[in-house]
Amino acid sequence: MTDLVGRVVIVTGGAVHLGKTYACALADRGASVVVADLSGAALVAESIRGKDGRAIGVDIDLRDPSSLEAMVAKAHDEFGAVHALVNNAGHFRNMFRGPFEDIPESDWDACFDINVKGTWNAIRAVVPGFRKTGGGRIVNVSSSTAFKGLGNVVHYAAAKAAIVGMTRSLARELGPDSICVNAIAPDYVPDDDLHTRSPAARGRAVQGRCLQRDQTADDLVGAVTYLVSEDSAFVTGQTIHVNGGSYFG
């Protein structure tokens, strides 16, 4: 198990589902974790501290750069530095699902404002500190939808494809500052609190994989841990496909 003792990691969208799993797992590996979300972050941080981990919870809105600057300031006040950002927060749980011509313009805008612009805003907030301390790690979250194509979520797939382009471009731009920028692309991960696909669709997702089972949040922890650690010091601009062999990246 990779040791993250001494590393400070921000996890956006850290109060629920995948983000909560990342935050708790990184803390278990010794990282000091900043759990950031619209709501619920304090409860997750309290749970981590209850298990002798180090964490704080911060309320953020990815569309509000000032809230992200405050997040970074709180991280520095509490832990003295920030070493990595996991850009997990996004617009998905309440997203419209249906034919492309029926997508409300407001929901299209929300997908790009939160998933793309929000990712950019969070990166802008952490990079000045990374430059001062001599480097850092940024882990963005794309999706299998950007590579496989998936009907009825065209706005989401397009936004997640933009994350890949942003990751590659920023890897070029921030490389001279020793800042590594990578992404992960999960396949469909069932959320017990949000039933977004029918049993039949869920079954088809499983059957299309080399490893024929549901993907879980825990399946992504290894890739995230690797990308925020020193083990990935010479890895940048990459998108790691964690999908059980649903497709080959």
TrEMBL record:
What PROSITE patterns would the database entry show?
Answer: ADH_SHORT
Which CDD domains does the UniProt entry name for this protein? Answer: SDR_c
Signal peptide (UniProt feature, chain positions)? none
Query: Which InterPro entries does the record associate with it?
Result: KR_dom, NAD(P)-bd_dom_sf, Sc_DH/Rdtase_CS, SDR_fam
* Family annotation (Pfam families): adh_short_C2 (PF13561)
- Name all Ketoreductase domain ranges: 7-187
Gene3D superfamilies per UniProt: NAD(P)-binding Rossmann-like Domain
Family label? Belongs to the short-chain dehydrogenases/reductases (SDR) family.
Know the name of this protein?
A: SDR family oxidoreductase
